[in-house]
Amino acid sequence: MKIVTLIGFLLFSALAVAAGMKTVDYERHEFRGEPERRSAELSVFVYDIPYFGACGIFPPLHIANEIFQSGGSEGGMSPGATWQSFQISSKEYEGLVQVIDNLDPMSLGDEARYTWVKYEFDPSFDHIQSWESWLLAVCEKHRDSYHQRQSGA
User: Fold this and answer.
1) Are 131 and 67 in contact (CB under 8 A)?
2) pLDDT digits (tens, 9 = 90+) for 81-124
């Protein structure tokens, strides 16, 4: 099983390099202990941000940039991640989507924390402008199927 995971991670890394993937320096926060300094390609980073996707749905560019511009959160009593605020271009987003669409998140192993459900895409919500409104609308539609995918059903 470890060999299959390693092969998947190597293939994923090749896709990310081919896409010219941005690297993000950030801190991973847990409830207890000091933050852990990390550096990861954007496609790994998005699987290490708590609540980056809404109910397993990958955000559109303007919502992703709202999240990236926020600089994250230490999480308090929950896990968190913090980073220097940044934005990505539409070209970088297209490359990110291509990698995410082809990525088996389980291949990331310990590189990211939230890999149990592969991101899906639903462009029918792309017109919603605010992160909170997008999240609520997406979860209204996808919550049940997300929970089924989480449980392996």
Assistant:
1) yes
2) 999 999 999 999 999 999 999 999 999 999 999 998 899 999 99
**How many other C-beta atoms lie within 10 A of the C-beta of residue 139?**
15
Distance CA 126, CA 3 (A): 38
DSSP 47: T
Alpha helices in the chain (DSSP H): 2-18, 42-45, 61-70, 90-102, 131-151
Q: How many residues are recorded in the chain? A: 153
- Under 8 Å between Cβ of 80 and 88: no
What span, in angstroms and rounded, lies between the C-alpha atoms of 139 and 55? 5
Cα 11 to Cα 101: distance, rounded to the nearest angstrom: 13
Cα 23 to Cα 26, 75, 121, distances in angstroms: 10, 22, 23
The answer to whether residues 105 and 47 touch, using CB atoms and an 8 Å cutoff, is yes
Give me the residue spans of the domains in the chain: 2-151
